[in-house]
Amino acid sequence: MSLDAANSPVENRVVAGLDQDAKIAQSPLAVRGLTVSYGEKPAVFSVDMTVEPGQMTAIIGPNGAGKSTLLKAALGIVAPISGRVTIFGRPLAEQRARIAYVPQRASVDWDFPTRVIDVVLMGLYRELGLLGWIKGNHRARALDCLSRVGMADFATRQIGQLSGGQQQRVFLARALAQGADLYLLDEPFAGVDAATEKAIISVLKSLRAAGKTVVVVHHDLATVAEYFDNVFLINTRRVAEGPVAEAFSEESLQVAYGGRLAATQIDQLARA
Amino acid sequence: MLLDAFTLQLGYNATLVAIGAALLGTAAGITGTFLFLRKRALVSDAVSHATLPGVCIAFLLMALAGGDGRNLAGLLLGSAVSAGIGLWCMNWLTRNTRLAEDAAIGAVLSVFFGFGIVLLTVIQTLGVGQKAGLEGFLLGSTAGMLYSDALVIAAGGAVTLLLVLLTRRPMTLVAFDPEYAAARGLPVERIDLLMMGLVMAVTVVGLKIVGLILIVALLIIPAVTARFWSERSDHVVLLAGLFGGIAAYIGAALSASAPNLPTGPIIVLVSFALFALSLFLAPNRGVLAAVLRHMRFQRRVHLRQGLLALAQGQAIYESLTLRLLRRAGLLRADGVATAKGQARAAKALRDERRWEVVRGDVTQEAAAALYDGLRDIETVLTVDQIQEIDRRIGGPREVLS
Questions:
Q1: Is pTM beyond 0.90 here?
Q2: Count of structural domains, chain B
Q3: What class does CATH assign to A3-271?
């Protein structure tokens, strides 16, 4: 690039645009100008997000900040008012098979007649097709996913008989069964026991080690630095995005949480 | 007479009705299970009541056109159209207004049914109604069933079953976890619509046999009956088909065995009998099993509490505890523990300590989850594992019996 061109503001803008395009093409999940509204109150407003490949990203923000909504809109579960979502640079509809989603536990009827292994087999839904029968190798794979989350002994229990943490791990096993490249989890650590939290985080780390991308809606500020590489702070609008060391700062927490966190708390977190 | 009915020896019409009813019962049971699992059982009631205006309008149109107003295929087509409109109204009301689904169901059901009754009265006053027998669609009437009617019912049932076979997996996924289904790219709304379409098909096909007021029973009772017997959705679906088919067949045969017994209501009563039997007798989820389980549990609690009290030298006041301990030969009549009682009591106390170790050990989670304060530890762990725990606890050893 010549010196003249680098100094020209027009050229600069074009180069920056190309740079953006390249980033979007590489990103497992890129969101541009996303607005989602329930009624006439936007829950997420004009948000840009670019998830880094092969890393673990936490989406954090106060209650009602639009964390789960952002995830649901990215997955097409709720329809956005405006905005664009790309998965590995392609439209969502073409890339469904590469995404695994772990919803919040509350979204399910726990008295549903289904056993733990049946839930995990739902992860193989795409492979089984409409008429395919479940065979031995499908069951073996489902059991393998269950043992990765330490739940193989529970395979034939009805799901309602499990504790909350165990149910969460079964959901994770179902996502594992999909063999996806991008994993999106909605508050997987909410109300679970310590054993489950450990099991889940070790599975997520093994996914990262295998080159997969993990995005987690997270509520516990104290564990952000310990668990995650990147952080995305949201309070309806994007507040900050980037590596934990940079984006998880006192200023951005102050902006995202406002008066909801005491100054001393923010101070402690940012220092930790 | 009854035996003749069950073995299809009651003549042409009774045989047609019994076979048609069994097919319809199976299709309704299987389709209804998905509705039940999706927790939208009452939608079927609104759909069935919404068929009435369509039946009447179809009759009028066919009669005015100079044809036979009673042509079943024509009447069913009419009922399908008006049920479809009812379904659409319900969907529109829940989606675009603040009305909840139950309110929308109530509104659609009553308005459509009321309109249908008005039309029915008009038809009767027109003088063409007497021979039409349209009231038969309210509670079902099988007396004049034709071979072609039976064919319509059989074909409708078969198409419904085929569609269910093709869509059972997406329908189950949507019923269990709609959000996850949407995240995987399943068209949740279209699948719900398809499910309603299937319910509508069963309703329309069943109008002639059970009538629109009672068809909801055929859709829902077999599903709740089957739920007592299994914890697996695929088994619940199959069992519901079986129960629905059996109830409809027996009901149709019973009603044919005596004059003037209404087919639809009898089928519903037989279906209810199967439900009542399951409610009481089913293992695990049945009422009797629950009572027995509770009694057994109560005894185990008392026995355990008694043993722990003995081990720690506390007094026992509960008469049930004392009775159970005496009956097991652990306590003498004067309230002193026997040798066996002392050994068991010491073991119970020791088990408590062992369980503490197991529950503090993350690697033993599956075993720890079985802790309920009652279970003997050797039913969960191997002798080696228990010895390992005892080594960790230290203190006096005891020989395991």
A1: no
A2: 2
A3: alpha beta
